[in-house]
Write a structure and sequence with these properties.
This protein is α+β, with helices and mostly antiparallel strands and about 140 residues long. It has one domain (about 5-135): Cytidine Deaminase, domain 2. Helices cover about 25% and strands about 20% of the residues. It is built from four helices and five strands; from the N terminus they run H-E-E-H-E-H-E-E-H. It has a five-stranded mixed β-sheet with strand order 2-1-3-4-5. A hairpin with a 4-residue loop joins strand 1 and strand 2. The protein is globular and about 45 Å long. The two termini are about 25 Å apart. The structure holds tetrahydrodeoxyuridine. Tetrahydrodeoxyuridine (THU) binds near residues 48, 79, 90, 91 and 94.
Length: about 140
């Protein structure tokens, strides 16, 4: 498989796209970058709405974009939060959505809010995951 990302490169991409987040209400910009099995990188930003509950996180924007473009082979995830004051691990909803497509050992890199990033895995962030077999049924 042609997977040619580095953690630093993927974080750089997430940081770049975060600048274009649509977050006029929270003023909290987030960017996500997914390294796909074919070597491509697919990105997303948080997209808020004046009806606040409709806001969508950067991670889910990226996953939904990947699926829309015919990709579901996610090999790594990077999350950047230039406005974050503490490490920006993904929210609970995004952990569930990422787990749909990411094996437990998929690396997740996220901003440490000090200029660096923390390395984890989806399995560490979303332990005791259940019902994976549902997606394998005919
Ligand atoms: N947000 C993300 O996009 N990803 C995260 O991991 C945490 C939160 C967004 C949602 C909302 O637009 C803003 O950040 C503040 O919560």
């Amino acid at each position: 498989m042609n997977v040619n990302f580095t953690p630093e490169g993927l974080m750089t991409k997430a940081r770049e796209v975060a600048q274009g987040a649509y977050a006029p209400y929270s003023k909290f910009r987030v960017g996500a970058a997914l390294a796909m099995g074919d070597g491509s990188i697919i990105t997303g930003v948080n997209v808020e709405n004046r009806s606040f509950g409709l806001s969508n996180c950067a991670e889910r924007t990226a996953v939904f974009t990947a699926l829309t473009q015919g990709h579901k082979d996610i090999r790594a995830v990077a999350i950047a939060g230039p406005d974050a004051w503490e490490p920006l691990s993904p929210c609970g909803a995004c952990r569930q959505v990422l787990s749909e497509f990411c094996p437990a050992d998929t690396p997740v890199y996220y901003d440490d809010a000090k200029g660096g990033f923390i390395t984890s895995t989806i399995g560490e962030l979303f332990p005791q995951d259940a019902l994976h077999a549902l997606s394998k049924r005919d």
